[in-house]
Structures are given as structure tokens and as C-alpha cells.
Amino acid sequence: MANVKEKMDICFDNKGPSIVIEIKEYSNGYGDIRTRGGKIRAFTEITKENVHYCKELINIVDELRHLDGVKGGIAVSESEYMATTVLDEAKPLTQVIYSSNKEVVDQGQYIFDTLWNAAIPAEQKIRELEGGIQTYRTKILEDPEEIIKEIGHLTSESNELSTCITSGGLQFSYSYFFDIKKELLAKEAKGEHLGIRYVTNIDRYNSKLAEIFLETGIQIRHIKNSPPMSFGVSDKEIAATIEKMEDGKRVQSLLISNEPLYVKHFKSLFEELWNNGIDASDRIKDIEQGVQADVEVIQNSTKAKETYLNIVKSAEKEVMILFPTTNAFIRQEKIGVLRSLTEVLRDRTSLKIRILMPGHALTERAVQELIQNGVNSNVKIDIRYLDQISDTKATILIVDRNVSLVMELKDDLKESFEEAIGLSTYSNSRAGVLSYVSIFENLWKQTELYQQVKHALTLLADTNKQLESANQKLEVQGKMQSEFINVAAHELRTPIQPILGLTEILRSSKKRCIEEQDELLDIIIRNAKKLKRLTEDILDVTKIEGKLLRLTLQDVNLNELISNVLSDYGDQIKKLSDKDVKITFETKENQVIVVRADKIRLSQVVSNLLDNAIKFTKGGTITLSLAVERKDKHESSNTWIAQNENSDNKGDNSNKGVAIVKIKDTGSGISPDIQSRLFSKFASKSFEGTGLGLFICKSIIEAHGGKVWAENNADRKGATFSFSLKL
After folding, report:
1. pLDDT value, residue 313
2. Diameter of the chain by CA atoms?
3. Of the segments 180-194, 511-525, 557-571, which one has the largest average pLDDT value?
4. What is the three-class DSSP state of 629?
5. Residues 321, 356: contact at Cβ < 8 Å?
6. Chain segment 54-73, per-residue pLDDT in tens
7. For 339, what's the count of Cα atoms within 13 Å in the CB-facing half-sphere?
8. Does pLDDT of 176 surpass 70?
9. Angstrom distance (rounded) from CA 209 to CA 199
10. Residue 241: which H helix or E strand, with range?
11. What string of DSSP letters covers 57-119?
12. Which helix (DSSP H) or strand (DSSP E) does residue 176 occupy?
């Protein structure tokens, strides 16, 4: 502290404030720095336990901020760096790491600045703790211990709790949060909590665990096809992960948010899953009895026909068939359904067959023949007629009350089974099959009330149409998100495959020469960087959407920044065997253009735009240019000074001027299909990118008060992407 000339930046965990306040040598040292004109920035984790120390600390530093999960502490000045992992409440430091090495100091400063930008003002956190003010945040956690802590907090603070979890995740929930949930159930018994609900896939491996949950009072329903994520939602916040948590493995990455839109979305998703679920008790009973419930949607009509015939032939006790139309009966007579029934009759005299169908002269012969075969085999065949059910779109087959097959009619006028049948649904789920048995029995007993049934089916058909219409609207709204998921999956898979494959090659072939190993490592590193870049893009979009993008402004020499970016890309172009691209940089000699900007974010913009140009330029030239529009009054000056002015036009009408950066390529140009939404999220014409890069560029430049735009070149060869920044 005695060596500090201009500034000292310091961070420490939640024990740090007590050390500074209670140990006078430290608090006096802070005072001496500020007396000499030095500046002190500090951040820590502000909690209910240390808030009184933090209030005092605010008065002896220039600025104090809060950040969750700070571990240990670091301090960095202009020339020195210190760190510690051991902090004890209100006790002096006992172990430190010290260095005056410039590289170490610079690294320490970079770490501090990165965390500083993620921190929030201390006054805001204190108001939250003392005044109960709600602040909306969305964040991604990657520390397993912190993740368990956050999930535990979400659980214990809930007034209602709904969880969708993988079958393996059930063990994770039991291992870490079962005691908390028993406390919530005790509160529910007193009317102080609305209860706990789970949807999950219950199988023979986790059924006993599910029984334990049920016995404690937790409500559970079984779903066969779980979503590709696990999530929990309370009345206040959500937590979600895409990890499978097999064998109760701890979560390594978690998205947590108290944003009302997220909470509402996941509540709606849970309710839909809950309404489509099967009572856990029924599912467990099926498992204990060895019944393997299965539901399959069959899109291929040939496979549906094969399944249909096999089910009929498997009948042991009872067959129930509902034919919705006369043509449906005729088609299935042609494919051999009636013949199969006749063959079954010869072997199983105890079989009972019931058929519901419309009466018609065209089917009379076949019906009488089937009844006669039953008489000959001492089998009871009972057929009842319904009026033509014109609005019914499915043939229903139920065998032995254990299996059902529902076949939708696509076109009843077609003669062949394959052309007439659409989707078919096979099920041996007890609950599902019994629901169709109930439908059949009601129709069987109440044929005289067929008109009322017909009306009900009409309403059902109208509802299906409305649902289809609603689904179409949802599909349109979700199209861009779906495209992004497909692209992101492709982008993630593309670098992962060579990383895994080449790593295996390196491990299995230790005798490879150094050159071959270096070549393979280059490919692995390049793909790992690509994976890192995609992750950073997704996180950047999260920050932008959550208005959490913060800039660290400083004077930036644009000429130098662009030159540094280009030097990196020179090596990249050499490694791309399928590229014959030349990159040039045009700017006035000796002209220095300075803007007030975040250097790292501005480099990200130039890199993204250059990446975009390289991606769509198989061969030719990429030209970067840097120019100024509207100089300052001092015409002789070659240096452009940053001005704090606002402008809504890319040309900026002020006399101070703007810097214009252009990246012109000779590639394929901008497709008309996406030109109008070029800088929107997920705007992409191929699986070569996520469609996030240009959206991030636009957000960063606009955060600087600048503008970004793009246009196809006048000669129809390639495109030019440009952005402006105030000088």
C-alpha cells in the first residue's frame, strides 16, 4: 500500500471486509492511499453477515461493488501484485503470493477488470438485503458447489415447486435436496406451501426411489419422452441444465434466472408435461407386474399395416375394432384383416370378437361370412352398426385390453391401405389402452344415442383443427429459434468430433513424429477455439438480451487495433488449404485515429466481420479500410480526439467527425432472403455459423453510440460491411 502511486484494485471474499475494518493497519493504509490522491476500487461478496462491515468499507474506498462467489483475494497496483487463498474473519493475512513481474501484474489487472465488469454496485446489493428489493438476473453457474447451493436456495425459498428431471437426476435430487423437500412438505401440511410436483421417466432402475418420493407426499407423474433438459421452477425463479445427471452425477453447468418471462415460460412447459403424464403409482405397478409400457407413433403406413396384422394374430381373449367408415372396413378386408381373424378363430375358441362399423350393402357379404366362421368355430362374433361417422378420422383396434393401435384416415377415398392411412399410434400403456377400451364400451352400450356421440366427435374434430391452427402459429413463431438450435448443434458437433478423434489418435500413436503431433494439435486447438468462440457468442447474446453488456472505455488507436487483428488472421489464412484469399488494409499514411471505446469488444467486432468475410470468400481479396468523415477545425492535426457526442445518423453531422471502418470482400454477397434481417439473431443461410455474430457486432457498436450497416458491392462481387464510431 505504501508503494501505490495512482491506484489500487482489490477484491476479497465475504471475510475480507471485516479484516479491512477491524485491522487498523489495513484501514489506515487505505486512508493513506486516498490522502496521496490514489484511487481504490474494491469488490466482495456482500452478505447479511458482513453488510455492516461493507457499509463502513464504502466510506474508505472510492467505489465498492458486489459479486457472488468470490474466493480468496487479490490486490494489484501499477507495479505490484498480491494474492491470497486464506482469509480469516477479522484477522491479519498470514499467507500471500507477491510479484512485481510486469506480466504477472498485467494478468492480475486483467482478472480484476473482468470480474469488476461483472459486479454490481454495493449500494444496490445492500438495498436488496435490507429492503427486500427484487432485482432480475439471469446467470450461468459452472461451479458444482455453487450450483448445489443455488438449487438449495431456490428450493427452500419456494412457495410452490415444480421439477422436470431425467431418470438419473432423481438420484441427484434425493442425494442433495431431499431433506429440504421434507421441510417444505411439513410446511405444506400447515398450509404454508403449495406442494412439490415432479415429472420424470420412471423405469425399473429408479422406481424404488420414486416410491420414496411418493411416500413423503411429493406428487409424481411419468412421461416417456422427457425434454432435452432438466429444470426446476418455483414461484420466484427457475434453474435449468442440459446434463443427464446419470447415476446422480452432480450438475456442472446451470442456468438460473428470476426473470418473470423465464419463470412463466417454464411454468407453462411444466404444466403441459404434467397434464400429459401418467400417475406414478400406475407406472410403478406396471413395472412391478412386468408390463413394459410403450407408445410409438408410426408414420410409415406399410409398417402400420404389418403391425396391425401382427396384433390381430396375437389375440388370445378379446378383439375390439371400430371402423369409422365403410371404405375403412373394405380396405382392411383387402389387406387380410378378416382372413387373419378367421385363422385366429380356428385356434382360439375362447376368443370374443366385437366390431363397431357403419352398415352398408357393400359390406354385408363379408360381415355374414365372418359371423358364419365364428359359428363354425364356436366363437362369439358380435357386430353392431353405427351410422356413417363422417367426422371420425381413425380406426381403433384393441386386443386383450393390453394393446391398442389407432390409425388416422388421411384420405378415405383411396382404395389402398397405404394411400388412405396417415399417422398410426401403437400403445401397450395400461392407462392409454384402457382409455380406448372405455371409448369402445361406451359406443357399444349406447349405439342408440349415436347422434349425441356424433355431435361430441364433431366438437372433438373442431378442437383438433383449432389445436392444429395454434400449433402452426407456434411453429412460425419458433422457427428461427429451432433453426438456431439445429445450427448450434451442428456448430458444437463440428469442432467436438475432430477434438475427440484426433486426441484418440495422439493417445494411441505415441511414436508419431513431432511434426505430425504438432499438426494434429494445431487442428485440435483450432477446433477448441471455435468451440470456445461459440460458447462466448451465446453468453454474449445472453448479456445483450439481459442488458448486462458492460464496456470498459479507454482511448483506442483504431489503426493499431485493426493491424493487430489482421496479424492474427494472416496465420489463419495460411492454414486454410481451401482458401486463396488476400487481406489488405488501406489507411492514410501517418494518420492516427483515436476513439473512446472498449478495446476488447471492438477487436471482437472487427474479428467477427473479418470471419464473416473469410467464410463467404473462397478466393479473391478482402480489403479493410479506415477513414474519417468531417474533420475537426484543426486541419493540420493527424490525431483524432474522442468526443462525447450523440448522433442518430451513420454520417454524423457534427464537425468533430466519425471514424468509418469498412470490410469489403469479393465473396458470394448478401442473400436477398436474409438482407432485411441481416443483423438480427439467428440470421443465417447455412450451417456455417449460428447467425449470432452480426447481431453481437451490431449490439456492441450501438452500445458505443455508433452504427453498423452492410450492402452488396456495386460490381455484384461480394459485399461491404461497415461501422462508424464517434471520434
Report:
1. 81
2. 113
3. 180-194
4. strand
5. yes
6. 999 999 999 999 998 898 99
7. 8
8. yes
9. 13
10. strand 238-241
11. HHTTSSEEEE-TT--SEEEE-SS-EEEES---TT------EEE--HHHHHHHHHHHHHHHHH-
12. helix 169-189
Residue 72 region by backbone torsions, left for phi larger than 0, else alpha for psi between -120 and 50, else beta: left
Q: b or e along 483-507 (b: 16 or more beta carbons within 10 Å of the residue's beta carbon)?
A: bbeebbeebbebbeebbeebeeeee
Do the beta carbons of residue 66 and residue 124 sit within 8 Å?
A: yes
pTM score, whole prediction: 0.35
Q: Are 420 and 409 in contact (CB under 8 A)?
A: yes
Pick the closest to residue 496 from 536, 542, 532, 539 (CA basis): 532
Nearest 5°: the CA angle 618, 624, 628 is 155
Give the number of other Cβ atoms within 10 Å of residue 665's Cβ: 26
Residue 161 has pLDDT above 70, yes or no: yes
Q: Which residues pair with 256 in a beta bridge?
A: 139, 239
**Contact indicator for 169, 247 with CB cutoff of 8 Å:** no
Written as nine digits, the cell of 78 is 501499477
For residues 402 and 372, is the Cβ–Cβ distance under 8 A? no
What confidence tier does 473 reach under pLDDT thresholds 50, 70, 90? low
CA distances for 358 relative to 319, 321, 387, 394, angstroms: 18, 12, 5, 13
The cell for 90 is 477479522
Closest CA to 203 of 141, 135, 284, 297: 284
- Cα torsion 325, 327, 333, 337: sign: negative
Confidence class for position 637, pLDDT limits 50, 70, 90 = very low
Angle at which helix 599-615 crosses helix 558-575, to 10 degrees, equals 40
Domains belonging to the chain, first-starting first, are 7-128 (3.30.870.10), 138-288 (3.30.870.10), 295-445 (3.30.870.10), 449-534 (1.10.287), 554-726 (3.30.565.10)
Q: DSSP of 200-235, one letter per residue?
A: E---TTTHHHHHHHHHHT-EEEE-SS--SSEEEEES
Per-residue three-class SS string for 265-319: HHHHHHHHHHHCCEEHHHHHHHHHCCCCCCEEEECCHHHHHHHHHHHHHCCCCEE
| Residue type, position 175, single letter | S
Residue with cell 396417415: 422
* Residue 300 grid cell: 410409415
Give the whole-angstrom CA distance, residue 371 versus residue 383.
8
For residues 351 and 317, the answer to whether their CB atoms sit within 8 Å is yes
Strand, helix or coil for residue 422:
strand
**What single DSSP character describes residue 413?**
T
* Chain-centroid distance, C-alpha 597: 31
* Rounded Cα distance, 208 and 527, in Å: 44
Burial of residue 107 (CB within 10 Å: 0-12, 13-18, 19+) is middle
- Reading the block at residue 265, the C-alpha cell is 415460460
Number of H helices, E strands in the chain: 21, 30
What is d(CA 140, CA 549) in angstroms, rounded to the nearest whole number?
15
Over residues 542-597, the pLDDT tens digits come to 788 778 888 999 999 999 999 999 887 776 666 655 567 888 898 887 788 999 99
User: For the segment 222-260, what is each residue's pLDDT rounded down to a tens digit?
Assistant: 987 777 789 999 998 999 998 888 777 888 899 999 888
State how beta strands 161-164 and 230-234 pair: antiparallel
Rounded to 5 degrees, what angle do the CA atoms 220, 226, 232 make?
60
What residue type is 671 in one-letter code? S
User: What are the grid coordinates assigned to 627, written together?
Assistant: 477513414
Q: What is the DSSP string of 304-359?
A: HHHHHHHHHHT-SSEEEEE-SSHHHHHHHHHHTHHHHHHHHHHH-TT-EEEEEEE-
β-partners of residue 665 are 622
From the list 319, 359, 361, 316, the residue with the least C-alpha distance to 338 is 319
Contacts of 387 (CB under 8 A, 6+ apart): 358, 450, 454
Q: Which of 480, 578, 494 is nearest to 530 (CA)?
A: 494
